[in-house]
Every structure is written in structure tokens, then in C-alpha cells.
Amino acid sequence: MKPLTGLAWFVLLWIAALGVVVGVVVTVGYGLVLIPAYLALALVYWALVVRGVDARKARAGEKLTSTLIASEQKLADAIQLRLCALLSRRLVVAATNSRIILITRPLLGGFTMKDYQWKDLYDVDLSENVFPRLFGSRLSFAVRPDEEGGMVHRLVIDGIEGRLASQIYATAQEQEQAWEEKRRVRTMEEARASSGGITLGGYPSTPGAGGASGSALDELERAKKLLDSGVVSDAEFNEIKSKILSRQSF
To answer: Helices (H), strands (E): how many in the chain?
Structure first.
């Protein structure tokens, strides 16, 4: 639900409850019971949601820090703005060098923690809500399915203060680029291995029908196929070629 829509429903709910109380008091006359009950409900809400906010924020931060594993560094963190969490305690989110951590806290205590590894997140979006000072910004990530053929879904984190949301967004962009590079390198190595074991570190000579020269030609042909398919660059191809030829005596 959009933050502004959620606020509108919340206000309407309290107005409707007040209207019911006033209507019953006017028509039936149970004001001594219903009005204090309404005020007690408002007081309970204030005690659960509003009172002691600084102390609860500190405890949430401590809980978040306690979940970090060895060598894990917190790069950015934020707590959801109040108007985006009217019926629950606010979401706590942190971006580390290995994952996104989310802590949700129900009204009556306790917490639920969930994390997403950066390797499973991509296509991050950042959008600013209407009245950003009140409702902040929204982060959205595509989440890779657990199994092949599974459905991609999106992780949405709403109501984060704009500056902090930008920090998390920048961290996500850096991590996405880093993982894309890791996957690119792995794909290249797998393609090299499947094409006959050619690697940049050295090139085994496999005897062929044409002797040593035939083997060199075979390796050059495989290297040319790698170049044509885009697995290696021109510079890498020249390096492969020079290493192959340096082992041959014609």
C-alpha cells in the first residue's frame, strides 16, 4: 500500500471509530463508558507505537549489529519513517558488504529477521514518494529465484529517509556491478575450459595428426573461436597466440 494511502485509511479508521462513539453517546447515552474506552485505545496506541521511540531505535540498532558475522561490515543502515509504519514498529534495514538485512518488529514485541545475499539481488530501483520529508523514498530489488525456473519477485523497502535510501542504493549498485563482473569472469573460464582447456596461464600441447605444428594450429583455431564468440578480447587472443607460438619451433 502506498504511504499516503495508508495514512488516509488510518485517519479514516480513527475518525470512523470516533463517529461511532459520538453516535452511541448521542442516541443511547453511554458516554461514561465509550468515551473513556476510546481515549484508552488511543493511549494504548501511543504507548505501543510512539512512546520511547529513541530507546527502541537504539535497541534495534544493537540487535542489527549483533547479527553481523565475522569480517562483515555495515555500509549503510536506516529505520523506516513513522508515517509508513502506522500499525507496526518500524522496519530496520542495513546494507553490508555481503547482504541486505531486514528486521521487522510487531507491536507486541519480538522481531523477525530476514536477509538477502547480494548475489541474489539485481535491478535495484530508487523512487521518491510524494511529500518525501514525511514518506521518504522507496527501494526495490529484483530477487533471483531459489530454483531454476522459479519466478523472479521484487523486494520492496518503503519509507526510508531520502539520504539514507540513496546510500543503500549506491551500495546496491556497486555490489551488482561487482557480481556481474564475477559472473562474466566465471563464464569466460567455463567457455575456455569447454573449448579445450585453453587458459591464459599456459596451453597444454595435445598431439594431433599433424604432429607439433598440427597441435599448435588446433590451439590457434580454438583461440580464434574464443575471439569470434567474444569470450576473449583482442589483447587476450594475441597473448594466447604468442604463448602458443613461443612453444613451437618451425
So the answer is: 7, 7
